[in-house]
Amino acid sequence: MKRLLAASTIVAVTMLTTVACGGADEQPATPFTSAESGGDNAEPTPPGPTGIPDGMGSGAADGEFPRTVGHFGGSTDIPAEPTRVVVIATGQLDAALTLGVVPTGAAYGDGADLVPDYISFSFSEYTDQLTQLVDVGNRQSVDIEAIAAAEPDLILANKTGSEDIYSTLSAIAPTVLTEGTGVNWKQDFLLLADALGRTEQAQAFLDTFTADAAALGDSVGGAGGAPTVSFVRFTADRARVFGIPSFAGYIAWDAGLPRPESQQFDKTSQDFSEEEIQLANADWVFVSSQDADAESNAASYTTNPLWTGMSAATDNHIVPVDDDPWYLNAGPTAATIVLDGLKNALQN
């Protein structure tokens, strides 16, 4: 099921031209700097980690087994190259497939399919294997019996969602916990790759991705600087704008794309009401809606004169995007889709 804003909503956004209530150019943008960056004169630091934390990983060469992997749940011995992998956390199906590993079982997220559409499209060469994927339940409440029945030789999960059941999972098979949350996607991808014995392959992917992102920023910078971007997601009962330390936010940071002043907050996302719609504005706004109920909620916002009057709306710079890769699955192929979406909007 495609999770895009309803076509009628987009028409309403682009056709109505109510007088703008303050444009994106009235919301100055500044680069993100972390608390550790050392003050105003320091170079901006990434909003998330770029590598495996010190003391974690295995240090083993690719393909070398057995290996002992330090991770966010402790330390795990992996005796041989895994062939039956169960993935539980957000983005891990994406990450494994990106490395050429087809999992045996997977969990699904709230409002998401076991195999999201973007996965099916991006990895069509694995269609037959993916139809046989064992469903091990919701990521927040996995089916332990289904995991055991899949007879895995490696379980991949994350600390955020599975720390409480780590010992149970470890009794079934060697288990490695990544940290979780979108801003940690690079670190988590490398740690997952280490458990699979494919770290060099993952690092090569990230090096290429970072170079491509930088090239995007260079191509749209110009004399006036790169345009500001905003990331908005609607669910059935919430409207949120995503900050710099988020999955899409980190990708924009890699590309050197600034954020409006209203979005310079140091957290993943922030809710906004209809009265606060202007907080969502930027030169370009990338919007997703989770499902049909979310589209109904979105319509009350996107037909509001405060929304249709935003500069992004009057400039026809509001872009509907697929909810799965942009906001639900913090994996490397999802990151490529987000970066391609930014390129398609900003370079055309």
Could you explain the architecture of this structure?
The chain has 348 residues and is α/β, with parallel strands linked by helices. It has two domains: 7-47 and 206-346, Rossmann fold, CATH 3.40.50.1980; 67-205, 3-Layer(aba) Sandwich (Rossmann fold). 36% of the residues lie in helices and 16% in strands. The strands form three sheets. It has a six-stranded mixed β-sheet with strand order 6-5-4-3-7-8. It has a five-stranded mixed β-sheet with strand order 11-10-9-12-13, sandwiched between helices. A two-stranded antiparallel ribbon has the order 1-2. Strand 1 (67-71) and strand 2 form a beta hairpin. Helix 1 runs parallel beside helix 11. The longest helix has 23 residues, at 199-221. The radius of gyration is 21 Å and the shape is globular.
Taking the sheet with the most strands, its summary is: 6 strands, mixed
Going by CATH, the homologous superfamily of the largest domain would be Nitrogenase molybdenum iron protein domain
SSE arrangement, N to C = HEEEHEHHEEHEHHEHHEEHEEHHHEHH
Report the average pLDDT across residues: 89
- CATH top level assignment of the largest domain: Alpha Beta
Regions with pLDDT < 50 over 5+ consecutive residues? 1-39
The span between the termini is 27 Å
Beta-strand percent range: 15-25%
| Whole-number tally of structural domains | 2
Strand arrangement across the biggest beta sheet = 6-5-4-3-7-8
> What structural class do you assign from the helix and strand content?
alpha/beta
Total number of strands: 13
Basic shape: globular
* Known CATH architecture of the largest domain: 3-Layer(aba) Sandwich
Alpha plus pi helix count: 15
Radius of gyration: 21 Å
CATH topology of the largest domain, what is it called? Rossmann fold
How helix-rich are the residues, as a percent range?
25-40%
